[in-house]
Amino acid sequence: MLTLPSFEWARPRTVEETLAALSDRPGETLVVAGGTDAVPNLKHRLHEPRLVVHIGGVRELQFVRDAEDGLHLGALVTLAELARHPVVRRDFPSLARAAGLVAGPQLRNMGTLGGNLCLDTRCTYYNQTYFWRSALGYCLKKDGAAAWRRTPRTSRRC
Predict the structure, then answer these.
(1) Domain 1-59, CATH
(2) Which residues, 6+ apart, have CB-to-CB distance to 7 below 8 Å?
(3) Are 39 and 77 in contact (CB under 8 A)?
(4) What is the dihedral of CA 94, 37, 12, 25, to 10 degrees?
């Protein structure tokens, strides 16, 4: 079973509190809202922050507004909300369709627009446990000096 690393937890309720928490430890924090990618990455030790800042309670960041100058979306809008929002479906059908095709319904209900826009780059090698990565000598993305490309038959350097 994969466990989470040790970290401190902050749960701000406003944008101002969020910015204060992030400014206290620059470079040592991870922002989490839905956590659909962040939590597995923490368990795989891809991120080892000293502080995790959970912004799920910052209601100022959860909005869909149809304004004269365009559509305004908050970082905490879930993919499910985006996919079913009537204005998005009417005026931005490709966005609604794309949001509705991400993963499965459980992940769309938790996953946020902000989290998906800030999603860390993925590769088969990077998304493995520390033990698995250490067996192959690490990669550029996490702790190493080599980039790897996995193919169905072999592993090789990029």
Answers:
(1) 3.30.43.10
(2) 30, 42, 48, 49, 50, 51, 52
(3) no
(4) -120
Bridge partners for 143 per DSSP: 139
> To 10 degrees, the CA torsion angle through 76, 96, 123, 129?
50
Mean pLDDT (whole number) for 74-100:
97
Map out the domains of the chain as residue ranges. Answer: 1-59, 62-106, 121-158
Q: How far apart are CA 46 and CA 119, in angstroms?
A: 13
| Virtual torsion, Cα 47, 11, 115, 48, nearest 10 deg | 0
Q: State the pTM of this model.
A: 0.76
Give the model confidence (pLDDT) of 50-77 as tens digits: 999 999 999 999 999 999 999 999 999 9
d(CA 134, CA 149): 16
Both tokens of 76, joined, read 């905490």
Best CA proximity match to 34, nearest among 123, 114, 126: 114
Q: Does residue 42 carry a pLDDT above 50? A: yes
CA 126 and chain centroid, separation: 15
Task: Provide mean pLDDT across the span 3-22.
Answer: 96
